[in-house]
Amino acid sequence: xxxxxxxxxxxxxxxxxxxxxxxxxxxxxxxxxxxxxxxxxxxxxxxxxxxxxxxxxxxxxxxxxxxxxxxxxxxxxxxxxxxxxxxxxxxxxxxxxxxxxxxxxxxxxxxxxxxxxxxxxxxxxxxxxxxxxxxxxxxxxxxxxxxxxxxxxxxxxxxxxxxxxxxxxxxxxxxxxxxxxxxxxxxxxxxxxxxxxxxxxxxxxxxxxxxxxxxxxxxx
Length: 220
Ligand code: DX5
Ligand code: ZN
What we know:
By secondary structure, this protein is an alpha/beta fold. It has one domain (3-216): TIM Barrel (Alpha-Beta Barrel). It has helices at residues 16-26, 48-57, 75-81, 96-106, 151-164, 182-188, 197-200, 205-216; strands spanning 3-6, 30-36, 61-67, 85-89, 109-114, 132-136, 170-174, 192-195. An eight-stranded parallel β-sheet has the order 1-8-7-6-5-4-3-2. The chain binds D-xylitol-5-phosphate (DX5) and zinc ion (ZN). Zinc ion (ZN) is lined by residues 7, 32, 34, 65, 174, 194.
C-alpha cells in the first residue's frame, strides 16, 4: 500500500504545527522527520524535543530518519519521544541487528537507511530484522537535491531481494522525489515516498500533497 511521507525539513519551522496539519488534511499518512548531527552528515537539524512536540499535535505516523553517528545510543529514545518508525544508517552502526531489534521491542517499526553508494548486498543479513528500508536517492544532509537516476534500478533490485527471501519489508525512497518522478518509484517497487521540497517548496502544501498522491496512484 502506497503512503506519502512529507519531510518537514523543508517546512516553515516557525509554523510547524500548521504545516503538519496541512499535509494531514491533504491525505499524507506519515510524517518524515530528518534528524542530523553535523557528524554523520554535514548538517544539523532537529532532535528529541522537537519529536516530542510534534507528537502532541498530530496523529500521523512519525518516521524519524536518524542521520547520526552511533544511532544505537538514541534509537529507542526516539520511540519514547513518540516515533512510530525509526531508521538508522547501515553505514554507521556496527551492531545494526541489535539496534533494529531494540527499536521493535521498544514498540516501533525498524528501518535500515542506505546511502546511494552503499551496495544492497550489505543489507542481506540484517534485512529480516527491518520493517522497512530507506533507500536514499540523494546523499543525505540536505533537502532539495537532485534525484540520483541509478536509484530506480536499485529499487527494482531491492524489491527482488525482498521477494526472493519471502520477506514483508517495505521500501521507502528518500530524496529528490516530486510529482514528475513519483509514479516511477511506485512502478519500481517503492511503497513509502518521502518528499520535502516537493511538498513544502512551492505554493500550498495541502495541494502539493494531493497532487503527489494523484500522480502516484496511477500505479495503484
Ligand atoms: C535528505 C533527507 C530527506 C530530505 C528530502 O538528507 O533525508 O528526507 O528531507 O527532501 P527532498 O524531497 O527535498 O529531496
Ligand atoms: Zn530523510
